[in-house]
TrEMBL record, chain A:
Origin: domain of life: Bacteria
Annotated protein name in UniProt: Methionine/alanine importer small subunit
UniProt keyword list: Membrane, Transmembrane, Transmembrane helix
Ranges annotated as spanning the membrane: 6-30
InterPro entries documented for this protein: MaAIMP_sms (IPR031596)
Pfam families the record matches: MaAIMP_sms
Species this protein is from: Fictibacillus barbaricus
Automatic annotation (TrEMBL), chain B:
InterPro entries for this protein: Na/ntran_symport, SNS_sf
TM ranges: 12-31, 43-64, 85-109, 145-166, 178-200, 220-245, 257-283, 321-344, 356-380, 386-407, 427-446, 466-486
Keyword Ligase: no
Membrane topology listed for this record: Multi-pass membrane protein
Pfam families documented for this protein: SNF
Coiled coil: none
Database matches in CDD domains: SLC6sbd_u1
Localization annotation: Membrane
Keyword Transmembrane helix belongs to the record: yes
Record-given protein name: NSS family neurotransmitter:Na+ symporter
Amino acid sequence: MSASAITMMVIGMVILWGGLLASIANVVVVSRKK
Amino acid sequence: MEDRQQWGSRYGFILAAVGSAIGLGNIWRFPAVAYENGGGAFFIPYLIALLTAGIPLLILEFTIGHKYRGSAPLSYFRLHKNAEWLGWWQVFVAFVISTYYAVIIAWALKYSIYGLNLTWGDKPSDFFYGEVLKLSAKPGDVGGLVHGVVIALLLVWVVTLSVLYKGVSKGIEKFNKIFIPALVVMFLVIVLRALTLDGAADGLNTFFKPNWDAIGDGKVWVAAYGQIFFSLSIAFAIMVTYSSYLPKKSDINNNAFITGFANSGFELLAGIGVFAALGFMAAQQGVPVDKVVKGGIGLAFEVFPAIINEFPGFNGFFGTLFFLTLVFAGMTSLISIVETYVAALQDKFGISRTKAVLFGGGVASVISLLFATEGGLYILDITDYFINNFGITLAGLVEVVLVAWVFKQLRGLQNHANAISDLRTGLWWKACLGIVTPLLLGYMMFDAIKQNIAKNYGDYPTELIITYGLAVAVGVIILGFALSFVKGKKNHLETAKKEAS
């Protein structure tokens, strides 16, 4: 795979899967605070 | 407002909303759309579309359903006394989609059994169009019913209506709690296997290699917003209906972020799996990957069986597994689509859930037989194109324009969502819905109209385009208006009318 293809794959993974994990983590953090 | 059924848990609601959003399009539409529109570079407009249209629209529909606690027609009526027709229009769009979506799931169900011994043989295309669909020679020849498809279709409808009959918590929620985790695990198994095949890296390189020139092309941006829009189950009554079953204290904004990211995250996973498999197929045939790329029905029922044939081992297992993922993804979406008119019938006429399921599902299942005929694929193709481009897109455009500009309800809805959510939205949300989304949807409509004036979709004869395309797209609007004038059951819609006035 070319470096540019790997970069775009990693960017996609970090933003989309990271965004999902961050949203779920927010639920956990908020529920613990309560 | 009357007592409504509720989700048993927040987890249950999120799984149901994600189950609705993740459908067949995630698996067979996204990879091809991304590849054709700049590859890796497509992720830039796609992510911007997710944050400026997808998630804001999800928040809007979750808020409308939660605040007004009704099916789409009732919720829109409660939002404004002149907006009930919009809800019915979206419900009829959902009704039409359910009639042909069930047929596609029926094909996938048949293929999950064919996969066991690779019944499709060496020529999957001939097998699909000839043996399975018995496709008529030309569009317009409806022909007789294809019995093999009808039997599978019957099974799809029985399962769907049984789940809906059980209700929101015991039916829809329970089904999604089982089948969404199962779908993700099964799809992960397929993706991991695809990644270890020869040629997978070439496939991924083809998919992710960025073509930066594409970013400057307006069509790529329209494709990105279109993918986000069609993929999230927005503007056809589903998310309004589902969120009407949320408890009063619900974090609407974060639920929308989870749903949006889960849907797009699954699309990315599908893109990785599909292109790794396409890379393998290209390596086996000794051709470049771009020669084997396909999307839609062709990818699922022609290309994938050919890929499964070439697998080095466990072909039957992976064949069945792939088509079962399509069945699971399709079923969780179909249930949400049918729920829109089950809920609308209950709210409007005050009938029991059983009657609403039997009547709504019964009529839809009879109409769906049209798509299980020898000429059904042609009708399905035309109806799907028109109901998407002139049903969902136009309904979405009218929804945001009415809510944001005509009824000026954005501030009130935002206050409602922010009051019960941990994540708060600000100017970003109102700007996205008031300006960005109407402009983009308006352009998508303009573009679709321009293309259809220049040339008939798919080169189909004009009479077929009018009968199965335009008449359906216009018909759902007329029916939407008509139903809004029909007198509803006292204590239901009329009670709501009094509350609204």
